[in-house]
């Protein structure tokens, strides 16, 4: 039997590999022919090494460019007519919008979307909410299922966007618990920390994520400077690339000030599991999140954390059990929470154990894969299409 052709659409190839890579491999193992569609980049080789065929989307962009988005819609419509996929599965805000529309107008039998985090939240001003929720209502009219990672978004989709409950599925989120796990790795820990100039007594606080202002780096760097701690006592380490395609990319002046304050900026790293091993605590000062992967990874590695009290972080951090939640955009209170963790080793240890327990219970990506495969099978059968034999 011909394998069902499954397309996963994202803005960038880094999302296909780092966000979805293990899932794409699982879908191949389940009997699907998997195609990844995104802007081309440095991660295409890794994607194709999984057995995924990559098709570049020339007009995909992460910046605000409506004319490029319209061009991407037309490009996708032609691509879907040519490739004739059985399923199109979209991700991220912009591909989720024009991808669903292009797939439906091209006659793709099964169209579904993962809501990684609605681009607006109930706290945003009414104009932004009206635009985002209106576009979501339009795009979702072209899909048969919406896999929602965050339960807070599920409530919004039901009450505000007025999605029918039959289309909504709470997906949750997860990470590879075999890669990210609280396990002793003293040699790796010592080697990594030595590269940062941190000895065993130094409390290393880490952050992982793109260097954009939305991730709260301006407040984090300000909070850290206000602590005025010697690097022998505490060190802040940040792993993540400069995202120059985004309008809110962290200005070079802020990065220079951070370096002068002794903050270690590592750039993009592929060995984040080793970095977590070398940390003593984790911080995520974001203004907006869907269901933050880095925080789940840190929790799985047994790290206590300080995170902003927003959608997404609230699903990862249980306040005063696995970490501390602090108000968004408040560098003073962020500094107070960081100091509390830095000064109290017993608190860090207890929260780290609880974080690892929560990760094993709630953040296993195998459950996400199983839920997604079950949704594919249900939608295929509803369209009188035989799903692959999953027992293979």
Q: If you compute it from the alpha carbons, what radius of gyration comes out, rounded to the nearest whole angstrom?
A: 21 Å
Uncertain stretches: none
Give the DSSP E fraction (strand runs of 2 or more residues). Answer: 15-25%
Number of helices: 16
Q: How are strands sequenced across the largest beta sheet? A: 3-2-1-4-5-6-7
Total E-strand runs = 13
- Helix fraction, binned, reads 40-55%
Give the number of domains: 2
CATH topology of the largest domain: Rossmann fold
Q: Let me know the average pLDDT.
A: 94
CATH architecture of the largest domain: 3-Layer(aba) Sandwich
H and E order: EHHEHEHEHEHEHEHEHEHEHEHEHEHHH
CATH class of the largest domain: Alpha Beta
C-alpha end-to-end distance: 13 Å
Main sheet: strands, sense, barrel = 7 strands, parallel
Per CATH, the superfamily of the largest domain is Glycogen Phosphorylase B
* Morphology: globular
Helix-strand makeup class: alpha/beta
Break the fold down into its secondary structure elements and pairings.
Layout: E1 5-12, H1 13-19, H2 21-29, E2 33-39, H3 44-49, E3 53-56, H4 66-83, E4 87-90, H5 93-105, E5 110-115, H6 126-140, E6 145-148, H7 151-159, E7 168-170, H8 186-196, E8 203-208, H9 217-227, E9 234-239, H10 252-260, E10 264-267, H11 272-277, E11 281-284, H12 293-300, E12 305-308, H13 313-316, E13 323-326, H14 331-343, H15 345-362, H16 365-382
Parallel strand pairs: 1-2, 1-4, 2-3, 4-5, 5-6, 6-7, 8-9, 8-11, 9-10, 11-12, 12-13
Helix pairs in contact: 4-5, 5-6, 9-14, 12-15
């Amino acid at each position: 039997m011909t394998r069902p052709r499954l397309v996963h659409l994202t803005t960038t190839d880094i999302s296909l590999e780092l966000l979805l890579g293990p899932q794409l491999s699982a879908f191949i193992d389940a009997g699907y022919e998997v195609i990844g569609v995104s802007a081309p980049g440095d991660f295409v080789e890794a994607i194709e090494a999984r057995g995924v065929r990559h098709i570049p989307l020339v007009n995909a962009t992460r910046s605000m460019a409506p004319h490029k988005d319209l061009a991407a819609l037309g490009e996708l419509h032609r691509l879907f007519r040519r490739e004739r996929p059985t399923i199109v599965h979209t991700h991220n805000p912009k591909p989720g919008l024009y991808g669903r529309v292009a797939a439906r107008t091209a006659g793709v039998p099964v169209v579904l979307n993962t809501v990684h985090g609605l681009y607006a939240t109930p706290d945003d001003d009414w104009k932004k909410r009206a635009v985002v929720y209106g576009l979501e209502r339009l795009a979702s009219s072209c899909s048969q299922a919406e896999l929602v990672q965050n339960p807070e978004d599920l409530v919004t989709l039901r009450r505000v966007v007025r999605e029918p409950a039959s289309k909504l599925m709470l997906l949750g989120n997860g990470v590879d618990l075999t890669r990210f796990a609280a396990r002793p790795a003293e040699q790796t820990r010592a080697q990594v920390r030595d590269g940062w100039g941190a000895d065993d007594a130094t409390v290393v606080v880490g952050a992982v994520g793109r260097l954009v202002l939305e991730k709260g780096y301006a407040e984090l760097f300000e909070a850290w400077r206000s602590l005025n701690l010697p690097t022998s006592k505490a060190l802040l380490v940040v792993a993540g690339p400069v995202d120059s395609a985004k309008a809110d990319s962290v200005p070079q002046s802020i990065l220079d000030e951070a370096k002068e304050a002794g903050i270690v900026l590592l750039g993009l790293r592929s060995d984040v599991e080793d970095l977590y091993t070398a940390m003593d605590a984790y911080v995520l000062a974001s203004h907006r999140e869907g269901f933050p992967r880095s925080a789940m990874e840190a929790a799985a590695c047994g790290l206590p954390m300080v995170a902003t009290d927003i959608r997404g972080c609230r699903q990862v951090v249980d306040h005063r059990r696995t970490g501390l939640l602090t108000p968004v955009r408040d560098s003073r209170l962020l500094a107070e929470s960081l100091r509390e963790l830095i000064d109290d080793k017993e608190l860090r240890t207890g929260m780290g154990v609880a974080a690892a327990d929560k990760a094993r219970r709630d953040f296993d990506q195998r459950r996400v894969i199983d839920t997604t495969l079950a949704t594919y099978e249900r939608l295929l059968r509803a369209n009188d299409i035989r799903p692959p034999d999953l027992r293979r």
